[in-house]
Amino acid sequence: MRVLAAMSGGVDSAVAAARAVAAGHDVVGVHLALSRTRDAMRSGSRGCCSKEDAGDAARAADVLGIPYYVWDLSDEFARDVVDDFVAAYAAGETPNPCLRCNEKIKFAAVLDRALALGFDAVCTGHYARLDPSGPVLRRAVDDGKDQSYVLAVLRADQLRHAMFPVGDTAKPQIREEAARLGLRVAGKPDSHDICFVPTGDTRGFLSSRIAASPGPIVDDASGEVLGTHDGVHGFTVGQRKGIGVDRPAADGRPRYVLGIEPVSGTVRVGPEAALEVTAVSARRPVWTSGVAPQGPFAATVQVRAHGGLAPATVTPADDGVEVALDAPLRGVAPGQAVAFYRPDDDGDVVLGSATITRTA
């Protein structure tokens, strides 16, 4: 097969490309230039698309003996990922930009271009497994690195042209393999946080793009106004630190953000126990099989990239789904994705996902 290997400059994508080469595929490496400010150097495990990353990807391609190109998708990334991220926070939601990047960039813009150029598949360093028949998307062997949650937005036709070569191996072994291959990125730190917020200051990043819009911070139980804020974009459901309330609750326990009302600008706070939800409504469902289930079905649901799992009954409804949780989950917010896993087979088969609109 002709395979386009997306090479970020990290160890995972480098080993994924190496495995595609070893499997006998005709592999071409491509580095995605997503940032509009690529002159800065990488700072440890923060940031992306730096000069260092592009150089590391080029050197890895050279070691593997494959052609290497850079594709500038910074405009698409700014529109579909960064702008979407900012708009979601302005609307009081909590988005996942990695999930949106996989959906809109790596397996839409990149895959579409790859297929148009005659490639059969796009290969990435994501930690997930893919059975060719179906196709069936599964969790990675390494639970701590599993990325099936942020891939649950992919459609069946996209999965048919995807390759995830490292999903059957634990991360330490991937680093060892990279070292044996002579790849300099073998010991490179993993990226974390939001790639386009290299400082880690998400609130500051949002404040530079969203105008201040003051509103009240209200006790959810009593309705008492406890303080004010400069904009709902500075808060997420489940947040405990940096709320901006000086005095403690009557029982001396911490307060948490329970809800965000963007129209009125109200941020509701209360005790940790009030974060529990037992029902979720979600829109824009995507089914990895390509076929929407008929009627309610049992599933294990996941609401965060790592953790936030519970058994549930999922009911398709119009252009969305209703999820009744068998066990309560905390810190579930509109804008997050809810991913559905088949409850048998160790719960590692991804059935689909949807974007949360409401919790109860």
UniProtKB/TrEMBL annotation:
UniProt: ATP binding residues: 6-13, 32, 125
Residues the UniProt record annotates as site (Interaction with tRNA): 126, 336
Location(s), subcellular: Cytoplasm
Broad EC category: transferase
Location of the tRNA-specific 2-thiouridylase MnmA-like central domain: 204-270
Entry keywords, A to Z: ATP-binding, Cytoplasm, Disulfide bond, Nucleotide-binding, RNA-binding, Transferase, tRNA processing, tRNA-binding
Domain tRNA-specific 2-thiouridylase MnmA-like C-terminal: 280-356
The protein's role, per its UniProt record: Catalyzes the 2-thiolation of uridine at the wobble position (U34) of tRNA, leading to the formation of s(2)U34.
Entry protein name: tRNA-specific 2-thiouridylase MnmA
Organism from which the protein derives: Pseudonocardia spirodelae
Designated gene of the protein: mnmA
